[in-house]
Structure formats: structure tokens, C-alpha cells
Amino acid sequence: MSDIEQQLGDIARIGTVASVDHAARTCTVETGDIVTGPLPWMAMRAGRMSIWSPPSVGEQVLLICPEGDTEAGIILPGLYSDDNPPPSSSPDEVRIAFDDDAFLAYDMAAHALTAKLPSGGTIDVEADGGVSIKGDVTVDGTIRATGLIKSDDDVWAENISLKHHGHGAPISWPE
């Protein structure tokens, strides 16, 4: 094999993440009998919108090595493998799966967005401008409110209507 062929063959290598330094945003890659020094990985986005999704140890990656120099390489994470299979095989679904079995999914065919957390998981939403939901809402659990609860129609508890269950004159909404 000529030097040119050898160099071309070394430009792109498949490897496995050996270690990750999150603070430095670098990782080392094992490819063949070589373990690289710390190299940067490519982010999904790093501009006006930024996504933090670091590679993990054992993840299969593509190592791009300018002029075949592994020490000047850039890591392209995200190659599926037997150890790290894709979270879905549906052409209609976009899914983000997490190691603790949580996931976010959107099924374009069913028009369904799903977020699932493992037992004990929590969701926090902060929007001091308000949250608006259009559509029926089903809650399987207790609802707690620290502020006023208003209804433009009626509120029912079992078979009792708050609107039509009289105990005196109607009251007006507090502002």
C-alpha cells in the first residue's frame, strides 16, 4: 500500500469513546491499537441554539483525522452499535431516549407527543408569562394550587355542580 493510500485510510476511522472530560469538552477514542489524546467532539448545534449532548464511554464514533493525524482529530459521535442500538426503528417517530428509561417521542403518523419519566421523576415548567393548554386535560393524581383557581363554566365534584349548588348569592371573580 502506498503512503497516499495509507494516509487516505487513516483520515476517517471508526472507534469507541474511552474517556470523557465534560469540563474540557474532549474525549479519548480507542481505534484499533491506538488510544488518542483528548480530542473535541462535534456538537449537534453550537450557535444561537445550543444542544449539550456529550458522548459517553463505550459509544461508537467516527474519528476524522486531517492528513491522517489522529492527534488532530475531531470526533463525530452517534454511531449506533450492538451495545448502543437506536431507540426506535419507526420512520414516523423522533425519539430521544435516556439511560434511566425516560424518553421524549413524537409520532408524526399518530400526531402524538409523549414524555415519560421513570418512577419518582419530576417535571418543572417555569413560565411567568403563563401556560396555556388547548384541549381536554386528564389528571390521574392530586392537583394542588397555591393560587386562585377560576372556571368560566362549572366545576364538578362527583355529582355536585359548584355553579348550580346554591348556598347564597353568586360572587364575582376577584381581580
From TrEMBL:
**Coiled-coil positions:** none
Give residue ranges for domain Gp5/Type VI secretion system Vgr protein OB-fold: 13-80
Specify the protein name. Answer: Phage baseplate assembly protein V
Q: What's the source species for this entry?
A: Sphingobium wenxiniae (strain DSM 21828 / CGMCC 1.7748 / JZ-1)
